[in-house]
Amino acid sequence: MRIVLDTAILVRAHDGANGLARALLLGVVESDHVLLISDEMLYELAKVLRYPRMFAHHGLSESRVFDYIGFLREASEIVRTNPLLITPIRDVNDTVVMQIAIIGEAHVICTRDQDFFEPPAEPFLRNSGITVMDDIALMQRLRT
Question: What digits encode the pLDDT tens for the residues 116-140?
Answer without folding.
Answer: 999 999 999 999 999 999 999 999 9
